[in-house]
């Protein structure tokens, strides 16, 4: 690795010698990428790459490939040292089986915003036993294979928002006892099966807003003993059983606004739950019957329900199931009897990734990662609960020590361009 020092820079030699402590013979930094450490990092973002660079330094722990045009991921592309792998905002449409299989150190995998990613193989994430954070937001996923999250025992953050998911089947998350955040908002989910959340005993936040839920099975939240935040606003819920909510002993914040609530006898158990809970709750505006339209269900007088049958068990709702044939694009009955062809074939048309790419402001393209969404992005402007301010705090691994800021060479204050001039493209 030849290194030419120009006379005025001799003073930097000690620093450079530190840099040269990289083992000789380490693979070179790929063209157009920047390599730095610690930890060993390869940053190739925003280069219009159409594929993953063929030779990557084998000891790299962080690989940043976001904001390119990568279309396919294949087995053998990534080395086993990787801890952090960012592939968001590419054009990934297929992930070959085995691509991530040997990444036993991987803790964070960001595949978000790949708007041609429609399907995932059942074993795509198998073997990622250390994975803590999996980002699959803003893709075009309309269903998930039954075993896709099997054995991901370390997973804490699972981001599935803004896809085209229609239905979530039983036991989809059953191994995720350490999961803290499950974000499912902005999909087309119209149906939850009764055991869909089984196993999520550590879950803290469940976001289901902006979906098409008509009903929630009575026992759907049974395992969620630690859940503190539940968002169900902007769905199509007319009823929700009080029993469903009394299964949530840790609940603190609940948003039910913008649903067409039926404030007749069907609301009785929910109304009773409201009278006894200390949870902070959004408004719950009645859509029917006509004489109660516009009133807040929470503040109805008990006399409204006095003529209701005493043991008014909530209709559980027919279990339409999320059947396996679903995954083969089979047409599924819609609860109101209308046909469901459009949903069945993958939802709305794909966004043109290139137009998306152009929309990203230049300064964001250049930074290794956009700022992770703040709490306010998730909680703000959605109406508010009464009597409570949501906890401020960290919403994910984006706020751990992981340095998501600008390119940084910890122990050097020298501006990066100077360093690159000094060192040439292959100092890693
Ligand atoms: C990537 O492609 C876009 C559109 O063709 C172009 O404007 C941009 O300059 C390219 N970026 C790089 C780093 O080559
Ligand atoms: C993105 O991938 C699709 C195929 O999935 C392809 O048709 C399209 O041309 C790609 N776009 C770019 C900008 O490479
Ligand atoms: C995940 O949770 C289990 C208990 O459910 C625990 O034994 C294990 O240590 C946890 N793993 C991690 C990585 O947190
Ligand atoms: C929720 O729905 C209301 C109307 O039903 C709409 O005005 C509002 O923008 C929606 N909010 C979100 C966050 O989607
Ligand atoms: C069924 O629901 C869809 C959307 O929720 C609606 O557009 C359609 O009119 C409904 N059909 C019937 C028969 O109620």
Automatic annotation (TrEMBL):
PROSITE patterns on file: LRR
Pfam families named in the record: LRR_8 (PF13855)
Subcellular compartments: Cell membrane; Cell projection; Membrane raft; Membrane
Cleavable signal peptide: 1-27
Major location category of this protein: membrane
PANTHER family: ANTIGEN BSP, PUTATIVE-RELATED (PTHR24369), RETICULON 4 RECEPTOR LIKE 1 (PTHR24369:SF196)
Stated family: Belongs to the Nogo receptor family.
Protein known as: Reticulon-4 receptor-like 2
Organism annotation: Eublepharis macularius
High-level lineage: Eukaryota, Metazoa, Chordata, Craniata, Vertebrata
């Amino acid at each position: 690795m030849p290194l030419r020092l120009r006379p005025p820079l001799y003073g930097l030699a000690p620093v450079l010698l530190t840099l040269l402590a990289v083992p000789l013979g380490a693979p070179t930094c790929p063209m157009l990428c920047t390599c730095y450490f610690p930890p060993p990092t390869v940053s190739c973002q925003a280069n219009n790459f159409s594929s993953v660079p063929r030779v990557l330094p084998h000891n790299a722990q962080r690989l940043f490939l976001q904001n390119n045009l990568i279309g396919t991921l294949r087995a053998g592309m990534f080395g086993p040292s990787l801890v952090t792998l960012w592939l968001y905002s590419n054009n990934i449409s297929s992930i070959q089986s085995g691509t991530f299989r040997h990444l036993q150190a991987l803790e964070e995998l960001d595949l978000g915003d790949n708007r041609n990613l429609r399907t995932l193989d059942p074993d795509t994430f198998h073997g990622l036993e250390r994975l803590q954070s999996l980002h699959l937001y803003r893709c075009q996923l309309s269903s998930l294979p039954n075993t896709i999250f099997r054995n991901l025992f370390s997973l804490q953050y699972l981001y599935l928002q803004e896809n085209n998911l229609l239905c979530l089947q039983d036991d989809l998350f059953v191994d995720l006892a350490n999961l803290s955040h499950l974000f499912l908002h902005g999909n087309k989910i119209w149906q939850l099966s009764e055991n869909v959340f089984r196993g999520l005993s550590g879950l803290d936040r469940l976001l289901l807003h902006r979906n098409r839920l008509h009903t929630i099975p009575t026992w759907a939240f049974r395992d969620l003993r630690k859940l503190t935040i539940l968002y169900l606003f902007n769905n199509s819920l007319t009823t929700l059983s009080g029993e469903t909510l009394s299964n949530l002993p840790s609940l603190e914040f609940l948003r039910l606004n913008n649903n067409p609530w039926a404030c007749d006898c069907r609301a009785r158990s929910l109304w009773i739950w409201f009278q006894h809970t200390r949870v902070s709750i959004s408004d719950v505006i009645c859509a029917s019957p006509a004489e109660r339209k516009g009133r807040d269900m929470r503040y109805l007088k008990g006399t409204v329900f006095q003529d209701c049958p005493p043991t008014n068990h909530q209709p559980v709702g027919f279990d339409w199931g999320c059947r396996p044939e679903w995954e083969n694009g089979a047409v599924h009955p819609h609860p109101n009897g209308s046909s469901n062809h459009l949903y069945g074939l993958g939802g709305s048309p794909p966004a043109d990734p290139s137009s998306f790419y152009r929309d990203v402001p230049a300064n964001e393209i250049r930074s290794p990662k956009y700022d992770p969404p703040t709490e306010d992005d998730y909680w703000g402007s959605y109406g508010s609960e009464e009597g409570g301010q949501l906890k401020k705090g960290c919403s994910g691994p984006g706020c751990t020590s992981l340095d998501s800021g600008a390119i940084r060479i910890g122990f050097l204050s020298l501006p990066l361009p100077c360093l690159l001039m000094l060192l040439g493209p292959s100092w890693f």
